[in-house]
Amino acid sequence: MQGLVEHAAKPQISGFEDLAYGSLSGMMGKFVEYPFDTVKVRLQTSETHVFSGTLDCLKQTWLHEGFRGFYRGLTSPLLGAMAENAIAFYAYNRIQSAIRAVSREPEDRQLSRLQLFASGALSGAICAFVISPVELVKCKLQVENVQAYGGAPAAGGTKFSGPVSVVVHLLRSQGLPGLYKGILPTVARETLGVGFWFGTYELVCQQLLKWHHPRDAARLSKSDLGPGSIIIAGGCAGIGYNITSYPIDVVKSFIQTDDVRAPAANAQRAGIAHTVRTVYARGGIAAFYRGLGITLVRAFPANAAMFMTYEYLARMSVALRRH
Length: 323
Hints:
Layout: E1 4-5, H1 15-45, H2 54-65, H3 67-70, H4 75-103, E2 111-112, H5 113-143, H6 163-174, H7 183-212, H8 227-256, H9 258-261, H10 272-281, H11 292-322
Antiparallel strand pairs: 1-2
């Protein structure tokens, strides 16, 4: 695990810039990915008779709700994505600095892949506590209309007019803990997924440097890569995140939408073990990967957009500072 990659040495940007650029990158990525995310969540949580597959979900969403249906509930996750990415990039870089301080590594010393994975995993665990309420609101809004697609009446009718109405309903009925329903699988997903997200990005960047500059790769950094390479590395990072964390995401989405899908069962809130058994009963191991195809389709462009936005804002900041 001693393959070395570089992140902190170049570019040198402040913590405030990490927060600002991470926030903007999250906004860009969310606009790209959200329609695909809506389809993913609906496939994950709906009964098998509602949608026959990804194309059927796309068709039915368009027929029942039009273009706006794909962006239903966007406000909450858009703000959440901005906050999540801001915290992710800030924490990722600050944790690397802490690792260097503890191990007495010089600032220009490259960290190992294991250290970078650990930095990403810890930043993901921190992010989970920010995005869990956001994802809870998002999932409820994305799913509440779906049950009627199969010809049955919607479960309990449409209760929510938007993100604020969801938050008000949860606070009145369940109090503050209600906003953190599904927090454990969210922490597990983000810890594993963000570790692979940053780890894959750094690894692909290093391999591309070796490919483009075989003699000089050791002294170069990501700031020496062109936009095409950043797009490839960012897209691969999104694929790595989703492939490794997707089954956990299915469990998380199932738990967060149980009252929307079947309000009668609301009094008996399902735990993780029960949810795993329920999902497995729907189709075995394959049920934990339902909707993965559409997720991977959106993962590449969305994450490429995120890393492109962050990297080039960072480079612009460094260039302006030098002048």
